[in-house]
Amino acid sequence: MSLPIVTSAPGKVIIFGEHSAVFKEPVIAASVSSLRSYLLVTATDDENVIELDFPDIKLDNKWKRQDIAVLKECAVSAASSSHNELSQELGVALEPLLANLNDPLHYHAAYCFLYLYTCLCGAKTGLKFTVKSTLPIGAGLGSSASISVCLALAMGILGGHISDSGDKLSNSDLSFVNTWSFIGEKCINGTPSGIDNAVATYGNAVSFQRQDDNTIKFERILDFPQIPLILTNTKIPRSTKTLVGNVVKLAEREPLITKPILSAMGHIATRGAEILSSLSDENYPVLLELVRLNHGLLVSLGVSHPGLEVIRSLSDTMKIGSTKLTGAGGGGCALTLIDKNASDSEIDEFKSQLQKDHGYVSLSTGLGGMGCSYVSSEKLKGHVASLATVFARDTTVEEIDSVLLPNGGPLSWVH
Ligand SMILES: Nc1ncnc2c1ncn2[C@@H]1O[C@H](COP(=O)(O)OP(=O)(O)O)[C@@H](O)[C@H]1O
Ligand SMILES: C[C@@](O)(CCOP(=O)(O)O)CC(=O)O
Ligand SMILES: [Mg+2]
């Protein structure tokens, strides 16, 4: 395996079914292929360390060969056991290596990295992993899954589980990345449903339902319609792990009340998938209604935020469309599905009021597009200097996109 290597994975928007997905209800989501995370793997100067450089969250950490070597046995056993649960033994063994990381953002990112690294690459050292993302972090657009997918793909190649000599990722490569990025999501979020890593792995749109035996009913939707929507980032910070944990506790405390709410959310996702597969001017209003219903139920579970209600209330008042939170809620992003009667100037006024009065940012983006992808060292020749520049600290989104964005930049991505 030669270095450097670059991997990438997109963010996602959940259209219907966040939170209820964790309770094995159906969910439907699409990738946002223009908002992505990127991982660069290079050789370290000191071949006795592995280095993690996550400039977006200001984390740079190194571990020595002997620290990694002691994990070998429990990592081998974790790698060969069930991929639905994290290994407690490996978790305990990793604790001393994470002891200096007090910020939960740092802790969970490094835990995800070390867990995947020891399982997939063993005790190898001499590698540096640098991650840069154009996705807002902790905003409901799946940044955690997109970094897990980048790591799983790169480590799959480095560990010899995935070949980097083909011109396409095979179904078994994608299944490998999906399985291991789910483990990475577990390290960050505790009890994820698996929808975020599935969308970041496969791209396009995915409808998904975890079954009681933990197998997944899964459909890739290649011809997902372009629905007119506005994503608004409140920039209110929150953690998916905490929000999902709160809903799980509520469901344990009040099962008779929460179960019908969660199952109604599942019916919304099923109905939404049906409408999206035959979208027309006639059934479009039903989609708007489903968005309203889904948001109302999420509010009842306690995962909205006054800052998100501002967006919902303004879109209702101005008759722009129907608004729901997307992702874990508690802050982060809302999506507004635009009413076909709303004019361009009304939509502009809606966005600028949210910007002026609350400092919110509207993200205009299409849905769907490429899932995980990589550029092999062979194809990176001639680009080493520009890579060093974009993976440095404080680069702008525009600078990153100009070099790394698939379908537009200079690199030839395998996907
Ligand atoms: N670019 C990044 N660099 C380092 N860590 C990241 C990055 N993006 C996401 N993470 C990790 O994922 C966590 C955020 O995930 P989460 O709370 O699920 O929010 P979301 O997935 O909606 O962005 C962060 O706390 C961090 O651990
Ligand atoms: C709340 C949930 O449905 C989505 C979380 O997405 P995000 O981390 O907020 O982007 C959890 C999950 O499905 O794993
Ligand atoms: Mg997440």
From TrEMBL:
Gene3D superfamilies: 3.30.230.10, GHMP kinase, C-terminal domain (3.30.70.890). InterPro entries: GHMP_kinase_C_dom (IPR013750), GHMP_kinase_C_sf (IPR036554), GHMP_kinase_N_dom (IPR006204), GHMP_knse_ATP-bd_CS (IPR006203), Mev_gal_kin (IPR006205), Ribosomal_Su5_D2-typ_SF (IPR020568), Ribsml_uS5_D2-typ_fold_subgr (IPR014721). Pfam families: GHMP_kinases_C, GHMP_kinases_N. Residues 285-353 form the GHMP kinase C-terminal domain. Signal peptide: none annotated. GO terms for biological process: ergosterol biosynthetic process; isopentenyl diphosphate biosynthetic process, mevalonate pathway. Its EC number is 2.7.1.36. It is found in: Cytoplasm. GO terms for cellular component: cytosol. The keyword Lipid biosynthesis applies. Residues 121-203 form the GHMP kinase N-terminal domain. Its main location: cytoplasm. It comes from the Eukaryota. Keywords: ATP-binding, Cytoplasm, Kinase, Lipid biosynthesis, Lipid metabolism, Magnesium, Metal-binding, Nucleotide-binding, Steroid biosynthesis, Steroid metabolism, Sterol biosynthesis, Sterol metabolism, Transferase. It catalyses: (R)-mevalonate + ATP = (R)-5-phosphomevalonate + ADP + H(+). The keyword Metal-binding applies. GO terms for molecular function: ATP binding; metal ion binding; mevalonate kinase activity. Pathway: Isoprenoid biosynthesis; isopentenyl diphosphate biosynthesis via mevalonate pathway; isopentenyl diphosphate from (R)-mevalonate: step 1/3. PANTHER family: MEVALONATE KINASE (PTHR43290). Belongs to the GHMP kinase family. Mevalonate kinase subfamily. Mevalonate kinase; part of the second module of ergosterol biosynthesis pathway that includes the middle steps of the pathway. The second module is carried out in the vacuole and involves the formation of farnesyl diphosphate, which is also an important intermediate in the biosynthesis of ubiquinone, dolichol, heme and prenylated proteins. This is Mevalonate kinase. It comes from Lachancea mirantina.
